[in-house]
Design a protein that fits this description.
This protein is of the alpha+beta class. Helices cover 39% and strands 31% of the residues. It has one domain. It contains three helices and four strands. The protein has a four-stranded antiparallel β-sheet. It is globular.
Length: 96
């Protein structure tokens, strides 16, 4: 059975997760915390490539096993704007 993200996460980034699925990313885990500013994370896997999408206090960032890769691509930072974050992640994946 496929992992389902919490409704609050789906409302926030559901279309973005669908776009990531086009790159082969499958949901493996997620957690939403209503008691902690509505923070959440979503884990995704494409082959051996693991990504974590995080919302922490209304900021978005991406995590991988290679912070060097994120640093070199300028993705080792938080975004205040969800749309800008989504565009940056998609551009980063297209370039990879």
């Amino acid at each position: 059975m496929a992992h389902q993200v919490p409704q609050e996460v789906a409302q926030d980034i559901g279309p973005f997760l669908s776009q990531l699925a086009k790159f082969g990313y499958q949901l493996t885990d997620s957690r939403y915390d209503s008691q902690s500013f509505g923070n959440y994370y979503v884990d995704l896997l494409a082959g051996k490539t693991w990504l974590r999408i995080v919302r922490d206090r209304s900021q978005y960032y991406i995590d991988t096993k290679s912070t060097d890769q994120l640093r070199k691509s300028g993705m080792l930072r938080a975004f205040d704007d969800r749309a800008a974050f989504e565009r940056a992640v998609l551009e980063w994946l297209r370039a990879a």
